[in-house]
Structure to design on (270 residues):
């Protein structure tokens, strides 16, 4: 109400396949729809796993190469990378984060992408990645709208904001 | 905004147009607020959503998340967006006479 001009459309690119790489884009897309803003989600590279039905609910928090990572919670001890590489560490961090997200009513990836689609958000997959990963329509969740080239994506994004995550 | 007179009742609104006291609310006020939000008529389905929002607000002091709203009110996401076009979370909260919801989901 105070801003001079409202945002009308956002096109969000999700390029990473870790849990913490996927969720920000989903939350922003869903939040956009809640505000009546048109939302496009474009999944590329490992981000594509968020819309592959076999894998979307198996995403994990990356515990290696993340210097901000702390255990057992966000205000705990820093987790050195070599410990983050221990078997089960990623699964543990994922479980902890999912527990906290559950409390905030943040749904699992499968439910969340469905919810965004039902809310009128569009879900697209990057053609270059689809070809590179040898994927077919059957690998995707049914609410994935279309496989797009980069050019198609820019056309769809025209007149709105593009956010890369 | 400030105090407005609706149906001979004085109703207080905050700067963003949300009612400051949800107890002043009634369905007649809801109809007027809905019209201001571009919803010409309130149906039974709208009423289910509004009542659920109010119940949640009275219990928790904040409106429900969209997920909770769809799961527990029985109004699916698609329908919710049709009932309150252009931003269901805030529009439904405003029409339900509760404060602006604070959740991100």
């Amino acid at each position: 109400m105070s801003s001079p001009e409202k945002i009308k459309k956002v096109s969000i690119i999700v390029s990473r396949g870790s849990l913490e790489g996927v969720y920000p884009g989903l939350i922003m897309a869903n939040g956009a729809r809640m505000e009546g803003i048109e939302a496009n989600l474009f999944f590329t590279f490992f981000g594509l796993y968020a819309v592959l039905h076999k894998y979307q609910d198996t995403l994990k928090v990356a515990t290696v190469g993340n210097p901000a990572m702390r255990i057992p919670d966000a205000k705990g001890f820093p987790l050195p990378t070599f410990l983050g590489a221990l078997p089960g560490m990623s699964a543990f961090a994922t479980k902890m984060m999912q527990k906290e997200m559950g409390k905030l009513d943040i749904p699992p990836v499968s439910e969340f992408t469905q919810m965004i689609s039902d809310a009128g958000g569009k879900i697209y997959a990057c053609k270059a990645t689809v070809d590179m990963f040898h994927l077919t329509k059957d690998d995707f969740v049914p609410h994935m709208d279309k496989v797009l080239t980069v050019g198609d994506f820019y056309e769809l994004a025209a007149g709105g904001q593009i956010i890369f995550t | 905004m400030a105090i407005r007179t609706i149906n001979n009742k004085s109703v207080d609104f905050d700067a963003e147009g949300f009612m400051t006291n949800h107890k002043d609310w009634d369905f007649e006020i809801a109809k007027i607020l809905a019209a201001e939000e571009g919803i010409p008529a309130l149906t039974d389905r709208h009423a289910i959503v509004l009542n659920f929002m109010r119940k949640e607000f009275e219990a928790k002091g904040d409106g429900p998340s969209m997920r909770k709203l769809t799961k527990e009110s029985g109004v699916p996401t698609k329908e919710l967006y049709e009932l309150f076009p252009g931003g269901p979370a805030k529009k439904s909260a405003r029409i339900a006479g509760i404060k602006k919801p604070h959740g991100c989901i």
Q: What stands out?
A: Residues 17 and 98 of chain B are 10 Å apart (CA to CA). Helices of chain B lie at 27-36, 44-60, 66-73, 77-83, 88-95.
